Description:
Layout: H1 2-8, H2 12-25, H3 30-42, H4 46-58, H5 64-76, H6 78-81, H7 85-98, H8 103-115, H9 119-133
Helix pairs in contact: 1-2, 2-3, 3-4, 4-7, 7-8, 8-9
Amino acid sequence: MLADLYQSQGDSINALKNYNKIIEMDPESGFVHFSLANYYLEHQDFDKSFEETKKGFASKNVDLQTKIQLYMMLVSNPEESKVTADKETELIAILLENHPDEFLVYTIQADNFLRNNKLAEGRGCTFKSTGIGKQ
Length: 135
């Protein structure tokens, strides 16, 4: 919270120091990776922002709903988030790897395929999401 407070007050130096201190103490904290992703995005370091986003998506300490909400925010505004189609695919792959039994992840993948006119792949994911959801 202290790091976020520094960031909100425009004190980037102390914000980054505190984010890094949190990572030292708890490297598995997915939420700090999301905060760092936002920090780097605000400072227009898009590569570092995406790397931190991936770490947050891979974290087992962040619930799937939070990851999906962030995913939706990122892909709904790609101009601001700088999430390209390749990066979107990479985030979906991370979600699939970490949540292989969650029908929502396959629904997201199906939507991505359908938006990219990959109808056969989208249909397959839709069927998979429906099958998982019925368990």
